[in-house]
Design brief:
Blueprint lengths: L1 E5 L4 H12 L3 E6 L7 H10 L4 E4 L5 H9 L5 E4 L6 H6 L1 H21 L4 E7 L23 H19 L4 E7 L1 E3 L18 H9 L6 E4 L11 E2 L1 E3 H15 L4 E7 L5 E2 H12 L5 E4 L8 E2 L4 H7 L7 H14 L7
Parallel strand pairs: 1-2, 1-4, 2-3, 4-5, 5-6, 6-11, 7-10, 8-13, 9-14
Antiparallel strand pairs: 9-12
The structure holds nicotinamide-adenine-dinucleotide and UDP-4-deoxy-4-formamido-beta-L-arabinopyranose.
The site of UDP-4-deoxy-4-formamido-beta-L-arabinopyranose (WQD) has 19 residues, from α7 and β8.
Length: 338
């Protein structure tokens, strides 16, 4: 099958491209490189010995998508493209609704015109309403997200559900990721945030290589086992395998499916620091500070639906996550810039 990856040069997209190539699929990446570098795909090509077709473009450019789809035989789209920085989204909501919501609308319109109606979408656990009951299954209520990024993901879920209901020829998977972390085991590709990282693990990694002085631990008075926030951290290679499984499951079918992609296991911030220190064999300087607005105490997945429907489950544990995150960061202290 030929799979079209929007945002395929980014963190999750590049790992998924690798997994798809290794499974024998052809991969076309469409990315405006606003938060990624072409080098990630060069490395995927080196690792797999296979070619990726790269097209520089923006999903909001419907005419360009029309030309691209007309010239190729695309079987399915995996839609990663979008902006994802929660804090930035509160300062620039229009940019988030434009890239994420209007971008998805433009993509779906172009797919429809080209008779391509198989779509896997990168959603997020952020769509769930705040809940004291863990784990979160797909039936848990969605909420009013605390930031425009989260709202854009929920709006896209609604848009796709309405589309599929109106035209049952569509086959759509909404994949709700929990906290994607880690890197390919080679250490050649990984997460390369521009500027100051927003997420925990890239922040810890950059403290470890001396790019940042210390980690601020946001909140130590949560009602959790050590007072710090608990999340479900999923290895990006497991997440990538989840996309392959979802594509296999929806190919040639009609309908809309929602699957959590998480491990079902939560770890606290302090447990994450400790596990990283062990993997990297060095201390991480950190300081306990106030809670970060909008954060919940805990969030982890009930991943049983994906296990049942897709035969997929996360296989890599915390040790592998930290080993691979550290290999990537220590071998590429400045990311894809060397
Ligand atoms: P990323 O920023 O590394 O990848 C997104 C890619 O999309 C980048 O390569 C960027 O250049 C590209 N892009 C952005 N806007 C575009 C546009 N208008 N047209 C074309 N390309 C565009 O992020 P990621 O971590 O790989 O996330 C991939 C997807 O998964 C995103 O939709 C994100 O919201 C979602 N997601 C991420 C996480 C996470 O914590 N990383 C969690 C849940 C969901
Ligand atoms: C994890 C834990 C923080 C940074 C976000 C988005 C979510 C999804 C994944 C896209 C929390 C703590 C963090 C730091 C810290 N993205 N922390 N110091 O907030 O669970 O989820 O990324 O869809 O939508 O909201 O991930 O990595 O930011 O935080 O103490 O410098 O680490 O408080 O407990 P989060 P995170």
């Amino acid at each position: 099958m030929t799979v079209f990856l929007t945002g395929g040069a980014g963190f999750i997209g590049s790992h998924t491209a690798l997994v798809l190539l290794e499974a024998g699929h052809d991969v076309v990446v469409y990315d405006n490189l606003s938060n990624a570098s072409r080098e990630s795909l060069n490395r995927v090509e080196q690792l797999t010995g296979q070619r990726i077709e790269f097209i520089a473009g923006d999903i909001r450019d419907g005419q360009h998508l029309d030309r691209v789809f007309a010239e190729r035989d695309i079987d399915a789209v995996v839609h990663f493209a979008g902006l994802k920085a929660v804090g930035e989204s509160t300062e620039q909501p229009l940019a988030y609704y434009d890239n994420n919501v209007a971008g998805t609308l433009s993509l779906c319109n172009a797919m429809d015109r080209a008779d391509i109606r198989t779509l896997v979408f990168s959603s997020s656990a952020t769509v769930y309403a705040e809940s004291r009951e863990m784990p979160l299954s797909e039936q848990a209520p969605t909420g009013r997200p605390t930031n425009p990024y989260g709202s854009s993901k929920l709006m896209i879920e609604w848009l796709l559900a309405d589309l599929q209901q109106a035209d049952p020829r569509w086959s759509i998977a909404l994949l709700r990721y929990f906290n994607p972390v880690g890197a390919h085991e080679s250490g050649r590709i990984g997460e390369d945030p521009q500027g100051r990282p927003n997420n925990l693990l890239p922040f810890i990694s950059q403290v470890a290589v001396g790019r940042l002085p210390e980690l601020a631990v946001y909140g130590s008075d949560y009602p959790t086992r050590d007072g710090t926030g608990i999340r479900d951290y999923i290895h990006v290679m497991d997440l990538a395998a989840g996309h392959l499984a979802a594509l296999k499951a929806i190919e040639g079918t009609n309908g809309l499916h929602t699957w959590n992609l998480g491990t079902g296991q939560g770890y606290s911030v302090l447990e994450m620091i400790q596990a990283f220190e062990q993997a990297a064999d060095r201390d991480i300087a950190y300081r306990l500070v106030e809670r970060r607005p909008g954060d919940v105490a805990e969030c982890w997945a009930d991943a049983s639906r994906a296990a049942r429907d897709l035969g997929w489950r996360a296989e890599r544990g915390l040790e592998e996550i930290m080993r691979d995150a550290w290999r990537w960061q220590s071998q590429n202290p400045n990311g894809f810039r060397g």
